[in-house]
Design a protein that fits this description.
Blueprint: E1 2-6, H1 11-22, E2 26-31, E3 43-47, H2 53-60, E4 65-68, H3 76-86, E5 90-94, H4 119-132, E6 139-145, E7 148-150, E8 159-161, E9 174-176, H5 177-190, E10 196-201
Parallel strand pairs: 1-2, 1-4, 2-3, 4-5, 5-6, 6-10, 7-9
Antiparallel strand pairs: 8-10
Helix pairs in contact: 1-5, 2-3
Length: about 200
């Protein structure tokens, strides 16, 4: 499968690219800065400003699916429009944990202990998910990683869930970029969460 990775030059994007190649897929690595994009056999670099739907459409043309590892400065409407222009129907989005239920019936973002300084940084992901839930044409899936989405080893073992945050026995919610990439490529290949959000954590 040929998969376009938006934000391929970032930490999550590089792990996604590596996981896709590991499983025999080819990658269109898309970003604004060619110097940051992965270089490997099976990777085609495309430099584009994906905040413009037409530029995004050109960048993902030929892809069977798109996985976004972008920060949420590009709104969902732009991504959706670009994919439709390109005729690409499959979208998987790397989101955030703030929209998950904290296990007590409260959205993480709405809990009183949620740090105030983080609110402006995560609200874009919440708006993005809300917009996707109104989308009826694209086959989208939204990945909310654990609360701590960090650099770390590729363990290949984690638990998945739906709208409720997954915790380990120590009360932590954590997953590495590498294992988050496994979860997203699993979704690409298996399609277990069509037009839905899911989560994963150790």
């Amino acid at each position: 499968m040929q998969v376009a990775v938006l934000g391929a030059g970032g930490k999550a994007g590089k792990e996604l690219t590596a996981e896709l190649l590991r499983r025999g897929h080819s990658v269109i690595a898309i970003g604004r800065n060619a110097e940051k994009l992965p270089v490997a056999e099976g990777v085609e670099q495309r430099v584009a400003d994906v905040s413009d739907p037409a530029a995004l459409a050109g960048a993902v043309t030929g892809a069977d699916a798109v996985i976004s590892a972008l920060q949420f400065d590009v709104p969902a409407a732009t991504i959706i429009s670009g994919l439709k222009q390109a005729g690409v129907n499959r979208l998987i989005v790397t989101g955030g944990a703030a929209s998950l239920d904290n296990g007590k019936g409260v959205r993480v973002f709405d809990a009183p202990e949620f740090p105030e300084f983080l609110r402006p940084l995560v609200i874009g992901a919440i708006h993005f998910l809300d917009a996707l839930r109104e989308e009826r044409e694209l086959n989208w899936s939204f990945f909310s990683p654990a609360m701590m989405f960090v650099e770390g080893p590729r363990l290949g073992s984690f638990r998945t869930g739906g709208d409720v945050m997954v915790f380990n026995e120590a009360g932590e919610s954590k997953i590495s970029y590498a294992d988050g990439a496994i979860a997203m490529v699993d979704e690409l290949e298996q399609g277990n969460h069509p037009r839905a959000r899911w989560t994963a954590a150790y």
